[in-house]
């Protein structure tokens, strides 16, 4: 009987942990989705680093609401947004920006986009 109770406690604990994990991920995804502008980047991408430097030097995060997402941690979301723009996922690279209706790739295009938001 003690083994049965222990098994039930273990099962309930496992279910609780899974539900907490799923809820946290759902909250993160909802937060990302609620932002109209999403900038996908990679830590080891030179063009991405150009954009990140521009953002830091010009304090863009204080002036424009957007989310920065590591494309290596969220490739499905990147490909989902690219598909909305009619892009083939095999041709999508970073940096990649989705503004809710259109997609931009490349550091120069993305920096120009942020410049236009400052005017």
Structural notes for this entry:
The structure is a single chain. The chain is an alpha+beta fold and 119 residues long. The chain has two domains: 1-34; 36-118, Glutaredoxin, CATH 3.40.30.10. 56% of the residues lie in helices and 12% in strands. It is built from four helices and four strands; from the N terminus they run H-E-H-E-H-E-E-H. It has helices at 2-34, 46-57, 75-84, 107-118, and strands spanning 38-41, 67-70, 96-98, 103-105. It has a four-stranded mixed beta sheet, sandwiched between helices. The longest helix has 33 residues, at 2-34.
Kindly identify the CATH topology of the largest domain: Glutaredoxin
The CATH C-level class name of the largest domain? Alpha Beta
Low-pLDDT runs of 5+ residues are 26-32
What string, H for helix and E for strand, traces the elements in order?
HEHEHEEH
- Could you give me the name of the CATH homologous superfamily of the largest domain? Glutaredoxin
The number of E-state strands comes to 4
Q: What is the number of independent domains?
A: 2
Outline the biggest β-sheet.
4 strands, mixed
The helix/strand class is: alpha+beta
Overall mean pLDDT stands at 85
The strand line-up of the biggest sheet is 2-1-3-4
- Overall spatial form: elongated
- How many H/I helices? 4
As a whole number of angstroms, the C-alpha radius of gyration is: 20 Å
Briefly say what this structure is.
This protein is of the alpha+beta class and 119 residues long. Helix content is 56%, strand content 12%. It folds into 2 domains: 34 residues; 83 residues, 3-Layer(aba) Sandwich (Glutaredoxin).
């Amino acid at each position: 009987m003690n083994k049965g109770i222990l098994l039930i406690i273990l099962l309930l604990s496992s279910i609780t942990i899974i539900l907490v994990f799923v809820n946290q991920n759902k909250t993160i995804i909802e937060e990302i989705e609620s932002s109209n502008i999403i900038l996908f980047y990679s830590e080891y991408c030179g063009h991405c680093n150009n954009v990140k430097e521009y953002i830091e030097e010009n304090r863009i995060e204080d002036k424009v609401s957007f989310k920065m997402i590591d494309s290596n941690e969220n490739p499905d979301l990147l490909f989902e947004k690219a598909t909305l723009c009619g892009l083939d996922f095999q041709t999508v690279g970073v940096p990649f920006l989705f503004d809710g209706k259109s997609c931009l790739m490349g550091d120069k295009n993305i920096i120009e986009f942020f410049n236009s938001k400052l005017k």
